[in-house]
Amino acid sequence: MNPLIEYAVVIPARFESQRLPGKALLDIAGKPLLQHVWECAVQSSATQVIIATDHADIMTAAQGFGAEVIMTSAKHASGSDRIAECVAKLNWSDDQLVVNLQGDEPLMPPECLAQVARLLSTDAVADAASLYWPIENEDELTDPNTVKVVLNQLGHALMFSRSPIPFSRQFASISKALDSGIKWRRHLGLYAYRAASLRKFTDTAPTPLERTEHLEQLRYLETGGRIVLEQACEYIPAGVDSRDDLDRIKNLMSKRL
Questions:
Q1: Structure letter (DSSP) for residue 166
Q2: Does the structure show a pLDDT above 50 at 1?
Q3: 8-256 — its CATH code?
Q4: Of 175, 225, 173, which Cα lies nearest the Cα of 200?
Q5: Which of 49, 67, 123, 168 is 20–30 Å from 41 (CA)?
C-alpha cells in the first residue's frame, strides 16, 4: 500500500483565452468546465484544493459550487506564476508539495494527482515531477500540439519538444520506427513542485529554449534543474483548448452519464 502523501492542489483559472474566451465557465453537462476539474481534484487524496483566478465571475461561480478561491493578478503569463502568487498569499512552507492541475482538464483521474505528488516526494533533489503516456501513432507524434519528452535511465527529463524526439535515422518513415518498438512519450501537463522550487522558477526569467518551443518546463532544464517523470497510472484524456475539444469532452461525458 502506498504511503499517504500530504499535498495541495491548486487550479489556475484565468478568464481570458485566445481560442475560447471565458472557457472556465463554459457549460458541460450542466456544470461549468471548471467545476468538473475541481470535482476531480476533491476526489483525490489532496489535503486542500484551491482555485486561483484573476476574474470576479470565476470567483463567484467557484464559490457557488463550494470551492476555496484565491484572487490573483490578471498580469500573470502562466499558470505557474498564478500558483506562485497563491502560495505566497497562503504563506506555505518551502517544502509544501503543490500539484498544478490546469483548469481545462475535466477528465483528470484523481489517482494521477496523488501519483505525481508521491513521485516528487521520493526525490529530494528534483525541482518538479510530471507524467507521460506512450505515443502509439504517427499523427500524435508529428502533431506540434503534442509535447514529446525524452528521459534518461533514471527517469529524469533530458528534453521536451513539439518536434518528434528522439529522431530516428535508421527508419525510412515514422510509422516503421513506431512498429520497431522505439519509445516515444507524450508529456502530460500535470506538475508537482515544492513551494521553494516553484518560487525560484517563477523568479527566473524565461530562457531561450523555452521561448523557442513555448514550453515553460524547459526553463528548469536550461537552468540546471531536474524534472522526474513516470508513466501515468491511468490514461489522461486531452484537455479543452478549442471548440472541437469542448465538443469532444461533452461527447465523452454524455457517455458516462
A1: S
A2: no
A3: 3.90.550.10
A4: 225
A5: 123
